[in-house]
Amino acid sequence: MSLQVSLFEAEGYRSLRAIRLPAEALTVFVGANGVGKTNLYRALQRLQGAAAGSLALDLATEGGMASAHWAGTRRAGKPAQIRLGVSLSPPAGEGAFSYEVTIGFRFPTAAAFDHEPQIKAEEAAFRGSGRPVKVLERSGPRLTVRDDDGRRTDVDADLMASETALARLDDPSRYPDLSLIRRTLMDWRFYHDLRTDQASPLRRPSLAVASPTLASDGGNLAAVFATLTHIRGDTVDLDRAVADAFPGACLEVPTPGSHASFGMAFPEYPRRVFEASELSDGTLRYLGLMGALLAYRPPGFIALNEPETSLHPDLIAPLARLVCGAARRAQIWLVTHSVALASALEREAGVRVRTVVKRQGATVVEGLGIGGFDEEDD
Fold it and tell me: pTM of the predicted model, to two decimals?
């Protein structure tokens, strides 16, 4: 079963003082630099870190709780904590799973480093037509889990305060609901670091191993193209995307040996194939986005952070068409400061672009209220 993101929540994380966002098949955010768009993206990554068991390390990499938690005013007596949550619904829309985690500072008596992020609470639940059924409930050291027989039992998982129970209880046979939530979060892909410098993974051949999904750093791009060309035997979407972005050009994917590679032939140089190491930054980045969005089996959820970076203005409209086509196969969350890209997505897909602003230091999405978006006011 595949689950789609239906709701995302964040409280106390960087500029996200308190936000509750419904998600669509294609969710697009636009805003100026510095309003906190990237924090929306990062918060989703931290949820994936909770599933992977890297949440405390990820926050420590950001500078720890002292850097990552909301620095503005708080209600008197309210602790400095970060709360992240997500609701996940099956395509048929029958009920929804939810998961949330609360992170805070170390207790003075805790066996942990001074600035190490600590897991204060976790909860996973299933909400159907009746009352919510808690699948996992953790408060401090106490952990209660619903097993495959439907029984709620206290579990001694020997959890450290920096570990998430979601990652620790990795037993699909005993905890199938937790396993489904974890697999869903782990399947997400974040494409924000498709480097184009000369040492970029995009420029290097990759091992010839069937690759249905592009890696987060794009290091298997050549294998993704080779999988579509020589294993699936279907390059219709690839050819269409290349023709749309680079009229008259052709993507060349030779039969792999031990490694897979690719190049581009352009109409002005019909007998010359330019290898990946020779391509311009913009061309290479666009091909990387093609690999992410047209892969044989794209992930269920794709997050793109400023995908227009280093692209020529002529590629904005083709990029919008590429994203819109991919949104029919995967759920996409896109953050951009390009008004041109946002407008093109609005035209191509008919989506309502969400404008992100900052008010009194907090990131705010215009038109967003407690119950969702007020489309009349938007």
Answer: 0.91
